Task: inverse folding
């Protein structure tokens, strides 16, 4: 060790040694993750039982810490980076993203002000434009990066609230004002309601509008709901349309909803957290039809654009609306560049901001538009193949259209047809048994459109490493397990 380098942190020589070991670990892991169980085989409390109650009094060696990482953490991790991860919406911590994350921590930049992160600030603005172009969104949109879609939607609705009240809420709060209201479909993500809770509109400030037979927000019902609310003294504020809803991946008719918003003077926010990525392929540009008329849109590169957690891109037409809602500059944060450069702290809730654009930059450059589009197409095609197998099988049923890379399906033995309770129990048993062997992880949802709620298994494709053989393996195991469960029931 070179003692001439004085440091209270880890010595660079020691850092180098461990960094090499960690680099090897990462490459090995990515090579073997497929052999690990996707779903962690632990019970609640098992991890904490193995952790000391108190942090160490004296420092420990990195070798010990890394050994504990292998022993305690990895086996108790559900592997989102596994090609058999088909639950929720699959994502990818891709190679270029992993490398970027390491460098992000190394620079440890904080792009609150342009001055505190010139590269991070300008790269963030540029990569957001790259995402906009990748998805075919018009050039008048620009944006910034938030941690999650939930935050992006919160921030967008805060800008909407500012606009509809001419800034009065910012000064006086909501007390004494007529109630504000946000509209979204019954199938919209819970983050819309949560934003309403945070923004002081309350859960009742989020009105969920009925969907049509394909689970899409119905513009006529929306119009009627707005009219009804106005009669009762409620002030309509914004509509959140979703392209790729979380349960069924339905796509709201954004253009028709934009008409309603234009007539009513409402902010239109589009939640394309998952589905927006699909527009990277020319084949699927339709998913963002009408989005050019939105005020804001969120898409999560950490979901289906191969960027590691966390990276959510919020795009908007009028950046000044966000600045007006959020900017608060104490004297100690004033800088000479304030008039000529963008200080990203002015556009959202957080002051400190991670250098997230670096991983977005690495991923967009390493894959390139062509490979991103090809991967998205591959995933949509794999889901279509799987849907085709379901459709062609007597005892399997598909519950909703599958326009994206997610399929809702269930096993329906003839004896159980029409018995929702039995179908729920039967398919839950199939799912639990399937998830036990560790080769894949699927989740479930409940679909309701009139009548009884229907239990469905849910299979999403979105990990860059997922191949046709993984989906074939899943289908073979599903059929075998369905037979076994049916005979032991
Ligand atoms: C995943 C998802 C969200 C929430 O995303 P976070 O980044 O985890 O907050 C919101 N809306 C839709 C449609 C989603 O698919």
Result:
């Amino acid at each position: 060790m070179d003692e001439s380098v004085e440091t209270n942190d880890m010595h660079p020589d020691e850092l180098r040694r461990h960094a090499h070991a960690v680099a090897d670990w990462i490459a090995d892991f990515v090579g073997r993750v497929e052999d690990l169980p996707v779903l962690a085989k632990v019970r609640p409390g098992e991890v904490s039982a193995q952790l000391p109650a108190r942090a160490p009094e004296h420092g420990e060696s990195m070798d010990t810490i890394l050994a504990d990482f292998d022993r305690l953490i990895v086996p108790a991790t559900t592997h989102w980076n596994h090609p058999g991860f088909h639950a929720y919406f699959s994502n990818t911590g891709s190679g270029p993203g992993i490398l970027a994350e390491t460098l992000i921590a190394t620079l440890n930049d904080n792009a609150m002000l342009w001055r505190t992160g010139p590269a991070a600030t300008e790269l963030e603005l540029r990569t957001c434009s790259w995402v906009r172009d990748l998805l075919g969104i018009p050039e008048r949109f620009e944006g910034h990066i938030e941690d999650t879609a939930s935050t992006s939607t919160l921030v967008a609705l805060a800008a909407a609230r500012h606009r509809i009240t001419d800034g009065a809420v910012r000064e006086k709060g909501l007390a004494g004002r007529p109630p504000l209201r946000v509209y979204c479909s019954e199938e919209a993500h819970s983050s819309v309601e949560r934003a309403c809770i945070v923004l002081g509109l309350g859960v009742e400030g989020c009105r969920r509008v009925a969907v049509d037979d394909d689970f899409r927000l119905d513009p006529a019902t929306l119009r009627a709901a707005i009219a009804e609310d106005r009669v009762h003294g409620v002030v309509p504020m914004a509509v959140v349309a979703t392209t790729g809803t979380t349960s069924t991946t339905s796509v709201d008719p954004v253009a028709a909803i934009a008409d309603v918003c234009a007539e009513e003077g409402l902010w239109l926010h589009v939640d394309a957290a998952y589905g927006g990525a699909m527009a990277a392929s020319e084949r699927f540009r339709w998913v963002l039809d009408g989005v050019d008329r939105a005020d804001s849109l969120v898409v999560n590169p950490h979901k289906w654009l191969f960027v590691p957690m966390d990276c959510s891109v919020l795009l908007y037409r009028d950046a000044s609306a966000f600045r007006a809602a959020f900017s608060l500059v104490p004297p100690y944060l004033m800088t000479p560049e304030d008039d000529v450069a963008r200080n990203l702290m002015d556009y959202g809730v957080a002051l400190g901001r991670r250098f997230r654009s670096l991983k977005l930059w690495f991923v967009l450059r390493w894959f390139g538009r062509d490979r991103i589009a090809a991967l998205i197409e591959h995933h949509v095609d794999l889901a279509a193949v799987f849907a085709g197998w379901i459709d062609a099988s007597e005892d399997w049923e598909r519950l909703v259209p599958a326009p994206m890379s997610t399929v809702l399906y269930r096993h329906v033995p003839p004896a159980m047809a029409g018995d929702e309770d039995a179908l729920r129990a039967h398919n839950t048993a199939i799912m639990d048994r399937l998830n036990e062997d560790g080769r894949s992880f699927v989740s479930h949802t409940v679909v309701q459109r009139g009548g009884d709620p229907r239990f469905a298994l849910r299979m999403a494709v979105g990990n860059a490493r997922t191949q046709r053989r993984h989906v074939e393996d899943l289908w073979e195991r599903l059929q075998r397990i369905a037979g076994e469960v049916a005979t032991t029931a």
In short: The radius of gyration is 24 Å. The chain has two domains: 11-39+78-93+368-489, 110-354. The chain is about 40% helix and 10% strand.
